[in-house]
Each structure stands twice: as structure tokens, then as C-alpha cells.
Amino acid sequence: MRNQILIQLVGVYPQLEILSTETTSAIRKYGNLPGMPTPPKKTVRRESMSSTLKCFHALELLAQEPYELPLSELASRLEQPLASVHRLVATLVEAGFVEQDSASRRYRLAGKALWTGAGYLRNSPVYRASFLVMQEAARKSPGLIHLGALHGEWVLYLHTVGSPSSLYLYADIGERRPLHATGLGKAILAWQPNELVNHITANKLQRFTKYTICSASDLREELKAIRQRGYAIDNEEGVVGLRCVAAPIFNASGVSVAALSMSAPVQVLSNQVIESAAAQIREAAMKISVQVGFRPASSNMLSLISG
């Protein structure tokens, strides 16, 4: 009886910090009793996780065009009350990830967001292994050399080297583009397990130009052709007037985790030079693959990625 009273006291006065050994033993033995409310730990955790995810969603919104948003627009896109979003943004501002423009009162990402994201590059074996290889490839290339890594349903641009002949050839670090509409993405996808291909083709494929592959069956045929020749071609599928060739980068397990590409205007990367450009990119991609742990079974490394 005494133990039960002590348990009830703990429930009524949760601020008590010191409990006797006897009381602690009673709590373990009897568990929750009437008069001893149980804190909703799971509910609190779910609410905390929900708030955390909303903070990340807010960061993602500010990472997209127009890159600055007023509080009302953030609340609308997050589908949350204005007061709730104000608390979320205040947390992000205090943490240094978001700042507010004093004139427009719009919110935007702060420098700490870049510093945090750059940690991905600093810890990326593919990025470190590709740096000098890309510099060498760019000296021989008429266009730009791009490095991209698999990121869910996207290819994530990690690095670009070269002198662009027009602005649309450049890709910002951290930019994401669909796998099915880029040379980098198709080069990665061609040597990925069928599960990823099935997942992507289960949804409608977005069209960017009249040349974009939007049919699931056509994409599968394209990936088969890529495996046979050993490289991918983006023939104005993402941007009109732009062509590129790309080759996969394999990890130690032999899985395509990234790709290297050369992009140039169609008149520069013409049919007459595309095979020689592809050979150059395949060789460079294989050098990176070997540096990150890929071990070809054949002495002829390039033959490994040709079907």
C-alpha cells in the first residue's frame, strides 16, 4: 500500500528529483497505476520528428528558385499555419542556416547551409578521385566536363571543369537533373539494378524537349543500347542545342554510382567526333573508378563497360 502511495506521489509531483530506492523498485514492479499519468513519449517524439522534417522541407524550398521567399509563401508551400512556420524559420535563423533580407523581409539560405552541404563533397571519394582526371580531360575537350552522382531519382552535379561556350552549358554544383533526360543520368541508370529503372518508369517521365525519352519501353531500349556501346548520349534531350556523351563510374562493388560527361553544342560535338569524345570520357571515367576501388577483371579496362 505504501509503495502504491509513493508511486501516486511521483505521478502528482513529477518535479521530485530524488526518489528512494524502495520507490524506484516499486515503480519497476507495479508499473503505471491510476493517478500516475504516463508522459506521451511517443507522441512527443512524433511531433518533434514532424517539426524537424518541416525544417528540412523549408530548407529544400529555399534551395529552389526563386531562392528567397516571404514567410507567407513558405507557410503556403509547407501547408502550415503562419505562426508554426514562423517558429520553424526562427529556429533555422538561430541555427545559422537561414537569414532574412532586411529590405524585402524575405528568407533565404545562409552561408552555413553551403558549408554544411560542402561536407558531402569533402567526404566524397568520387569527387576527390576525379579532380585531376577532370582537369586533364578538360584540356583535351572542346566542351565542358561534368561529374554527377546518383541521388535518388536524380543525378547530382558535383563538379564542372572547362570553358563554356555558352551559359547554358554550365551546371552549378549541387544542381539536380532527372536521370532519364541527361547523359550522366542515363550512364548511371544503364548499370543500375532493375529496381531503380522500374521505380523511375512507374511514374510519368517529364518532357524537356521534343527529343526527351518519355516512354518506359523506349528508355529501356536506350539503356540496353548504352550498355552495348559502353557510353550514353544526350542528344538535345535536356536542352535544345546541347549534346553530351557520358560514361559510368563504378565503385568497389562494381555498381555505377556516378558518371562523367562531356557536353558541347551539337555543331561542336558532331557525329564525326562523338566516338572519339566518348572514348576519351570512357577512359577518364575508368581511371576514377579504379581510384575509388573498382578492380576490372580484364586488363583491357575499357572493354569492361561495353556490354
Q: What is the alpha-carbon Rg in Å?
A: 27 Å
Whole-number count of domains: 2
The backbone outline, from C-alpha atoms, is globular
| CATH architecture name of the largest domain | 2-Layer Sandwich
Backbone structural class: alpha+beta
> How many distinct beta strands?
9
What's the short version?
Helix content is about 45%, strand content about 15%. It is α+β, with helices and mostly antiparallel strands.
Give your account of this protein's structure.
The chain has 307 residues and is an alpha+beta fold. The protein folds into 2 domains: 41-114, Orthogonal Bundle (Arc Repressor Mutant, subunit A), CATH 1.10.10.10; 124-305, Beta-Lactamase. The chain is built from 11 helices and 9 strands. Strand 4 and strand 5 (154-161) form a beta hairpin. Helix 1 crosses helix 2.
How are the secondary structure elements laid out?
Layout: H1 2-12, H2 21-30, H3 41-62, E1 68-69, H4 71-78, H5 82-95, E2 98-100, E3 107-109, H6 111-122, H7 125-140, E4 144-151, E5 154-161, E6 176-178, H8 183-189, H9 194-201, H10 216-229, E7 232-235, E8 242-250, E9 256-265, H11 274-291
Antiparallel strand pairs: 1-3, 2-3, 4-5, 4-9, 5-6, 7-8, 8-9
Helix pairs in contact: 1-2, 3-5, 4-5, 7-11
Q: What are the main properties of this structure?
A:
307 residues; alpha+beta; Arc Repressor Mutant, subunit A; Beta-Lactamase; 3-stranded antiparallel sheet; 11 helices; globular; disordered N terminus
